[in-house]
Design brief:
This protein is mainly β. It contains four helices and 23 strands. The strands form six sheets. A six-stranded antiparallel sheet has the order 4-3-5-11-8-9, with no helix packed on it. A five-stranded antiparallel sheet has the order 1-10-6-13-2.
Length: 338
């Protein structure tokens, strides 16, 4: 019994260390990325033969996720090497007319080269996959995600090899009665890898997230925080806004967090003058650049205040245009009073 328990713990430990979903990388476009957009090969699998066995149990091997290479004398149920290609990001409904009404599973495969480095991690980031995604790297499960409009990423460092690698995604947009959208609903459920795919190369200890904003309690100050991916104390990090001549060096605490507060009087963002500042978040081996606008939003009674001024009418510009379009379509006329 003891051996069985120890073995179970070992499997759990291995499963967690091979690959895992990690908190979302902030500002993915500013990372050192290998962009995986472009042509992916795909296979339509309405019966999910590439995922289930005849008892409808998930396959442990011989699934489409293994991306096996077959020679001309072998019988095979699938072959990504000879399959059609689809431009990613996209949806299969509009890219393949045969799949216009299709709801089910489609497998996608992409080859890429990678150079391993002991000082870096590989974070595989998806902007969105609709709806149920299972992601494999070099035939091993990296992780799963449910939700068609939210980004997600996995630490796949231990699944990557030097040289040629491949990623396979099982995308399934079938509806279920307890999901949103549900089965009987007026909703076009697009399927596929609908947003960018990137493999970010980050330091082993990296900047996971950050916040830079006007201080909510005190005028004339910018405040925020920088968060590392692990609980590393006394790590030097910095925030700088060159146009405002600001540079602040700070140290992380025992939880890998660094907080700051800086005196500043930036030009406030408005629809008429959408001012953005270049903001740099960095540490010794990592530099992130962002464009950030500073403004305040609050409510007072029924009014919405932008930078302390009433801005309800400006916020309804889009709504007014929509209502005008509805009027042109013969809908009942409506008015907005500001």
């Amino acid at each position: 019994m003891r051996k069985i328990i120890m073995l179970c713990f070992a499997f759990l430990f291995i499963g967690k260390t091979i690959a895992q979903e990690v908190p979302l990388l902030s500002n993915i476009s500013a990372r050192n990325n290998i962009n995986l957009n472009g042509q992916w090969r795909y296979i339509v699998d309405p019966l999910e033969n590439g995922y289930y066995d005849y008892r409808l149990m998930p396959l442990k091997n011989n699934g489409f996720f293994e991306n096996k290479k077959f020679n001309t004398t072998e019988l095979s149920e699938y072959n990504f090497a000879t399959s059609a290609v689809m431009q990613i990001p996209s949806d299969w409904n509009s890219k393949d007319e045969r799949l216009f009404f299709y709801e089910g599973t489609v497998w996608f495969e992409k080859d890429f080269n990678y150079k391993k480095d002991a000082k870096t991690k590989g974070i595989l980031h998806f902007g969105a996959v609709n709806y149920d995604a299972k992601v494999y790297v070099n035939g091993k499960l990296a992780g799963t995600h449910i939700g068609g409009y939210t980004p997600f990423n996995f630490d796949v460092t231990n699944l990557l090899v030097d040289g040629n690698n491949f990623v396979v995604v099982k995308a399934d947009n079938k509806r279920h009665k307890d999901n949103v959208p549900t089965v009987n609903m007026d909703w076009w459920n697009y399927g596929g890898i609908t947003r960018d795919v990137n493999l970010a190369q980050v330091p082993n200890t990296y900047i996971e997230d950050y916040l830079v904003q006007l201080n909510k309690n005190e005028k004339g100050k910018i405040s925020g925080w920088i968060k590392l991916n692990n609980e590393t104390a006394n790590e030097s990090v910095s925030v700088s806004i060159p146009e405002l001549k600001i540079k602040k060096d700070i140290k992380t605490d025992a939880k890998g967090m660094a907080y700051f507060e800086i005196k500043a009087n930036p030009v406030l963002w408005t629809p008429e003058n959408p001012k953005l500042y270049e903001v740099k978040i960095s540490k010794a081996d990592e530099n992130l650049v962002d464009q950030i606008g500073f403004r305040t939003i609050e409510t007072k009674g029924k009014e919405i205040l932008l930078n302390g001024k009433k801005s309800f009418c400006e916020a309804l510009v889009f709504t007014k245009k929509l209502l005008l379009d509805l009027e042109e379509l013969g809908q009942q006329k409506m008015r907005i009073l500001c």
